[in-house]
Design brief:
four-stranded antiparallel sheet, Enolase-like, domain 1, single chain, five-stranded antiparallel sheet, Uridine Diphospho-n-acetylenolpyruvylglucosamine Reductase, domain 3, Uridine Diphospho-n-acetylenolpyruvylglucosamine Reductase, domain 2, alpha+beta
Length: about 280
Amino acid sequence: MKPAKFSYHAPGSVDDAVALLGQLASEDGRILAGGQSLVPTMAFRVAQPGHLIDINGIPSLGTISVAKDRVRIGACVRHAAFEGKTAIPGPTGALLGKVVRNIAHYPIRVRGTFCGSLAHADPSSEWCCTVAALDGQMIARSPRGERVIDATNYFQGVMSTALEADEMLTAVELPLLPADTRCGFQEFSRRPGDFAIAMVLATYRLENGRIADPRIAVGGAEVAPRRIAEAEAALAGQPAEPAAFARAAQAASEAIEPMEDNFNTAAYRRALVMTLAQRALEKAR
């Protein structure tokens, strides 16, 4: 099929893009960055925006910056920017490099964007799970000004976020994890590059041989990614050994409310989460 008729706009600045979105939101105006999610839905006429606001011509949105204890990722930074050597130091950079290898296929990683994935908010998005795990902050701009949305409030359901129709996601900020943080990521899909059925991201530190600051986030299994407090509580203060990892994985599987579809039952997703959580913890480096 072909997309329905739409008007194309190419603003040269963030201010111009925000102003356009404010004017056109009532006509289903949409921001176009990588287009790897939006354009296919337009081709099948699942989405029929009246206006596309292309932000690829705004240089400031394509940058990654590191300041103090945070990294800021602009709205047009591609997935592929996190492959190989990056400007992001320490465990945060290593974790992003580990996660990105699971995203779709190389041509999509070259074009698709980090923030576009967050705006689309597919439950099986690796970046959404990552931002939920790290308590990222979304930076949104509208004609009313700028606001910061915490990850716990941002993800609201399947492809549903706290963004208003006239708000543009301009950047996301993530913390720089302490140098001794160990990170693990595991996901499962039917074939390499397919949408993940479930994924688990885990981080922790060791203090005197005991687990400190554990983070365990689940994506793909529920309607939105989130940290699993029950699994984190099961880990805190425990030795980093398989028995402790197994208890945390069991706690994670019991705490979630898995989705069901024509191919995957809730019980199957629950079992996957338990296996993936244990593997993510065991393989954390």
